[in-house]
Amino acid sequence: ELKVEQNPLFLSMQEGKNYTIYCNYSTTSDRLYWYRQDPGKSLESLFVLLSNGAVKQEGRLMASLDTKARLSTLHITAAVHDLSATYFCAVDIKGTYKYIFGTGTRLKVLA
Amino acid sequence: GAVVSQHPSWVICKSGTSVKIECRSLDFQATTMFWYRQFPKQSLMLMATSNEGSKATYEQGVEKDKFLINHASLTLSTLTVTSAHPEDSSFYICSVSGNTEAFFGQGTRLTVV
């Protein structure tokens, strides 16, 4: 059974600080996705990581994928309040577009 | 990416009644769609795979007779929650597979009273 774990589950950080969210998964997969979810809303796609060693950056967020370690990271640089949201990683089941989502990380950036 | 539209965005129904949720792929023909459920402050859980022209495939623990899925065309899948109870109150989200990723609808908030 594929399991996807994120840590931390909750993260409260000061504006301007850096932090990393980790996503570990239990079986082989070459496709990993990061999403943002605001309260009461659906998912906003952040990053699509399709191969080992993939690194993508958008603004203050950078995501990477290590398929051998079965680990993805979402790094936040110089956090701002607008980044406050819940972040999910998701792993594709054998290229089927069926996703197993991580537990989620609720991020709160304090002004 | 594909545009996926869900309707309604929110619905309140009485316990024991049935509710239908629609998921439309507006610019992409989808032979497969997926339905997820998200309880408050939890992650998304895959419920079922909707297959155009054939029966849906349900994940373990999801009651197929309670959550009826119909995928009659390449652009529309429907999820009907039958005999809804308060414990079915949740956020239901559908997705459509694209070339390299799935695209998600805006979700439907179901409240059963």
Brief overview, please?
The complex is a heterodimer of chains A (111) and B (113). Chain A is mostly beta strands. Chain A has strands spanning 4-7, 10-14, 19-25, 32-37, 43-49, 55-58, 61-66, 71-76, 85-92, 99-101, 105-110.
SSE map:
The complex is a heterodimer of chains A (111) and B (113).
Chain A: E1 4-7, E2 10-14, E3 19-25, E4 32-37, E5 43-49, E6 55-58, E7 61-66, E8 71-76, E9 85-92, E10 99-101, E11 105-110
Parallel strand pairs in A: 2-11
Antiparallel strand pairs in A: 1-3, 3-8, 4-5, 4-9, 6-7, 7-8, 9-10, 9-11
Chain B: E1 4-7, E2 10-13, E3 19-25, E4 32-38, E5 44-51, E6 57-58, E7 67-73, E8 76-81, E9 90-97, E10 102-104, E11 108-112
Enumerate how many helices of chain A there are, as a single number: 0
β-strand percent of chain B reads over 45%
Give the SSE order of chain A as H and E letters.
EEEEEEEEEEE
Quick check: average pLDDT of chain B? 95
Structure description:
The complex is a heterodimer of chains A (111) and B (113). Chain A has no helices and 11 strands. By secondary structure, chain A is mainly β. In chain A, strands 2, 4, 5, 9, 10 and 11 form a 6-stranded mixed β-sheet that branches. In chain A, strands 1-3-8-7-6 form a 5-stranded antiparallel β-sheet, with no helix packed on it. The mean pLDDT of chain A is 95. Chain B contains no helices and 11 strands. In chain B, the strands form 2 sheets. In chain B, strands 2, 4, 5, 6, 9, 10 and 11 form a 7-stranded mixed β-sheet that branches. Chain B has a 4-stranded antiparallel β-sheet with strand order 1-3-8-7, with no helix packed on it. In chain B, β4 (32-38) and β5 (44-51) form a beta hairpin.
Which tags fit this structure?
heterodimer, A: 111 residues, mainly beta, 11 strands, globular, B: 113 residues, four-stranded antiparallel sheet
